[in-house]
Structure formats: C-alpha cells, structure tokens
Amino acid sequence: MESIINYFGHIPSAHRSAILVGGIMFFWLLEGGWPLFRFGYHKWKHAGVNFFFTFTTILVNFPLAFILLKASDWTTRNHFGLMQWLDGLPLWIRSAVSLLCLDLVGAWLAHWTQHKTKFLWRFHIIHHADPFVDTTTANRHHPGESLVRFIFTTLAVIIAGAPMWLVFLYQSMSVVLSQFNHANISLPVWIDRIVNKVLVTPNMHHVHHHYRQPYTDSNYGNIFSVWDRAFGTYKDLSTGDIVYGIDTHPKPEENGRIINLLGIPFQKYRPPVNTQQDSDS
Predict the structure, then answer these.
(1) Residues 57, 128 contacting (CB under 8 angstroms)
(2) Dist. CA 26–CA 29, nearest whole Å
(3) Closest Cα to residue 139, out of 73, 38, 47?
(4) How far apart (Å, rounded) are the C-alpha atoms in residues 46 and 50?
(5) Alpha carbon distance 239, 237 (integer Å)
(6) Largest CA distance in the chain
(7) How many CA atoms lie within 13 A of 12 on its CB side?
C-alpha cells in the first residue's frame, strides 16, 4: 500500500497523459485484431473528430487541476471527508471506501445527472451521437461537459476526503477503464460474468450506447459496476441488437462534424424519437 501511495503521490501530469495515450494505443490495436463490430468507416477520420474533443478535455482540465489540489489539501488539513472520518480503520479499508465514493459521485452521479437534466443532456449528446463506438469515443466530450464533470469530481474529492495520491489513482483507473469499456471489443461471456460483478466491461457499457431508450438511460458506471445494480439502472441487451448513436441526431452531418457537435448544446432541444419497451427489467 505504501508503494502505491509513493507512486501516485508523485506522479506528474506527463505520466497521466502517457496513461491516456498508452490506453488508446493498446485498445486501438486490440480492436484491429479482434473487433466486436466491423464498422464500414474511415477509422482515422472518425478518430480525428474524437481526438479533437480529447484535446479540448485536456485543455479544460489542465488549468483547473489546481482546484483539485486545493480541495484535497483542504480536506486533509481540516480532517474532512470519509478518508479522514474513518481514521480508526486500516488504510486499505479507508482507501477502498474513498475510492468507491470518488467513482460514485465523480462518475456515476455526474453521468446520471447529465441524462436527467435537459440542459446538461444537450452537452452530453456529443458523446452519445457517435455511431461507431470505439476506444476513442471514451474522451469524446463537449468542453462544457468536461467542466461539469470536473465540478462533480471536485465535489467527490471533498466528500471522500481524498489525498492527492488517491485522486491520482482514481483518475488513472478512470482513464484506463473508460478506454476499456468503450473499446470495440467483447469479452467471452464467462469472463464478462465474472469481471462485471465488480468492474464495468465493454459488454456492459456498450448497452448504454444503444441509440434508443430505455437502454440509453442505463449502465452509467465507469469503474465499478455495483452502482447500476444498487440503483436499478443495470440492463442487458444482446450484442446483435445494439445500434450505436442517438436517435435525435442520426445524420452524419449532425454527428460527425466538429462544428455542429460544438453547437448542439445551443440548438433547440430534441426529445427522444422512440422509446423501446423494456422487457429486461
């Protein structure tokens, strides 16, 4: 445990960027060898749009990183948050509880809120509008959504009372798991049944990217799968029935052009076109 603290307590921003780049490259190669779907698309052209939004996400988060540092330092100095309040327990238990809190508030709750709030959903549409979900989709977020997610992450840090080493550990896990569960791959059923008891797998998250409700409003998790089961938002859908994208923006000029994607939050709200009857609940 001490070695983990030492590593993530001193990990520079360059190393975290390397984790992002390394994750994309690894799952990109994996997709090429064992793709779940053989998309009829220009992979590099598709990736170019998503890389643009990856870059804007980095631009938004980099100058705001000092807020996370200040929030983490404040919780430590003022003995605030779960990590501090549970100081009678072993470090590994306190760290696990705080990590779960970071994932719940910083990822699951942020994601759920964006789906349930029309104003925030308009920004999140950019992520769902991708008709060819692969590992590059993981970072396809409107700059406005990146700001919203950062606010929730900061709130999570305060509630968890997370020291910076734990924040860096959480962010590293979040990056890798997000690349993994968006990748155009599928785990063997027997492996998936074991892994998704704890972690969000591609098989699970791909359901979330189905183009129609209620599946769009399910499987919000990023790292841990427990939250969707606990809050009743977990759903299954056969891989063969999954169609990516969003039914409100089906045209290539709407979901594949950067200029239009940047403008979607400021366009007139479009309600869901169709809602599938849920036979899996």
Answers:
(1) no
(2) 5
(3) 47
(4) 7
(5) 6
(6) 57
(7) 1
- The CA-atom distances, in angstroms, between 113 and each of 3, 40, 48, 149 are 36, 33, 28, 10
pLDDT tens-digit profile of 51-100?
999 999 989 988 888 999 999 999 999 999 999 999 889 999 999 999 99
Report d(CA 81, CA 71) in Å as an integer: 11
Q: What's the whole-model pTM score?
A: 0.89
Give the three-state DSSP class for 191: helix
CA distance 23 to 31: 12
pLDDT digit string (tens) for 126-169? 999 999 999 999 999 999 999 999 999 999 999 999 999 999 99
Residue count (the chain): 281
10 Å CB burial of residue 50 (0-12, 13-18, 19+) is buried
